[in-house]
């Protein structure tokens, strides 16, 4: 059982909300507010989402997820105000660079609400409306990332700061894309060239898990939400102000530029 009350989780979440609004990294949370378990981190994460949406008139526009490992749950909300599809994109930088991850994004076209019956892969497939190229924007809100635990980062939405959604791609091809060859260039300079591999070997597998995980907690996915399911090639650091072109060979190409917040 968690040692956290709702009030403690909300106090911790408010510190993280304030930090994110100010775009200023800070220390790990005080010990009495710092999550020690995945469940405590999820309590703070949920309180964060409630406070953020209330204070900024925002909503949960999507999720990031991966299939869980033995002791880690990879899940975090992405807020509607941070989802963009038109360049330039304003982002908080790290050492004058924007940190991104190349992914695929799945738009939900039909609600997958809480229910008693588990969701099957076929149920989730039928709810997917479109598939797009996408870049997750990354920013750690802890001043010393090397001192954080997984629970610290889970509480603060797994370093997500937003999402850039690129062009729509063929859904059938994308669903089978366990690997993708990339050619990424920023102002003509190579950022990454070579094969990327999905961490779960299939980009829809984490989405199947997410739908069932949320259902089991009395929650669900809503039509219009967009889901990303893991980076194919780690984190890329892109110089602020540059124009980035990323070819996902066999799927499509996206182009975007970033401004510093």
Describe the structure.
- It comes from Cellvibrio polysaccharolyticus.
- Keywords: Lyase.
- It holds the Pfam family FAA_hydrolase.
- Residues 80-256 form the Fumarylacetoacetase-like C-terminal domain.
- The protein is of the alpha+beta class.
- The protein has a single domain, classed as Fumarylacetoacetase-like, C-terminal domain (Fumarylacetoacetate hydrolase, domain 2).
- The chain contains 6 helices and 13 strands.
- The strands form 2 sheets. Strands 1, 2, 3, 5, 6, 7, 10 and 11 form an 8-stranded mixed beta sheet that branches. A 5-stranded mixed beta sheet has the order 4-13-12-8-9, with no helix packed on it.
- The longest helix is centred in the first third of the chain and has 19 residues, at 38-56.
- The protein is globular, with a radius of gyration of 18 Å.
- The protein starts with 5 loop residues before the first helix and ends with a strand.
Overview in brief:
Keywords: Lyase. With about 260 residues, this protein is α+β, with helices and mostly antiparallel strands.
Supply the number of structural domains: 1
Secondary-structure content class: alpha+beta
Number of strands: 13
Can you tell me the overall shape?
Answer: globular
- The proportion of residues forming helix, as a percent range, comes to 25-40%
The number of helical runs is 6
Under CATH, the homologous superfamily reads Fumarylacetoacetase-like, C-terminal domain
Architecture, CATH level 2?
Alpha-Beta Complex
Give the topology, please:
Layout: H1 6-22, H2 38-56, E1 60-66, E2 74-79, E3 83-84, E4 89-91, E5 97-108, H3 121-127, E6 128-138, H4 150-155, E7 160-169, H5 171-175, E8 179-186, E9 189-197, H6 205-216, E10 226-228, E11 236-239, E12 243-248, E13 252-260
Parallel strand pairs: 1-10, 3-7, 4-13
Antiparallel strand pairs: 1-2, 5-6, 5-10, 5-11, 6-7, 8-9, 8-12, 12-13
């Amino acid at each position: 059982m968690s040692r956290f009350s709702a009030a403690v989780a909300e106090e911790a979440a408010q510190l993280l909300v304030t930090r994110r609004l100010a775009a200023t990294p800070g220390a790990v949370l005080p010990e009495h507010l710092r999550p020690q378990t995945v469940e405590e981190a999820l309590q703070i994460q949920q309180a964060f989402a409630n406070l953020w949406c209330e204070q900024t008139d925002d909503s949960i526009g999507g999720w990031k997820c991966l299939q869980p490992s033995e002791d880690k749950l990879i899940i975090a909300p992405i807020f509607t105000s941070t989802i963009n599809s038109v360049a330039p994109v304003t982002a908080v930088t790290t050492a004058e660079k924007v940190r991104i991850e190349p992914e695929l994004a799945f738009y939900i076209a039909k609600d997958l609400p809480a229910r008693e019956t588990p969701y099957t892969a076929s149920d989730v497939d039928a709810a997917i409306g479109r598939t797009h190229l996408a870049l997750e924007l990354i920013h750690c809100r802890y001043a010393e990332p090397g001192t954080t635990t997984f629970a610290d980062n889970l509480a603060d939405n797994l370093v997500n700061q937003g999402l850039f959604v690129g062009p729509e791609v063929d859904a059938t091809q994308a669903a089978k894309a366990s690997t993708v060859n990339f050619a990424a260039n920023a102002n003509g300079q190579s950022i990454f060239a070579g094969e990327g591999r999905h961490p779960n070997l299939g980009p829809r597998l984490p989405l199947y898990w997410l739908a069932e995980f949320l259902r089991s907690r009395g929650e669900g996915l809503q039509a219009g939400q967009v889901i990303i399911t893991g980076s194919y090639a780690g984190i890329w650091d892109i110089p602020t102000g540059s124009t980035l072109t990323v070819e996902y060979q066999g799927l499509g190409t996206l182009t975007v530029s970033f401004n510093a917040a």
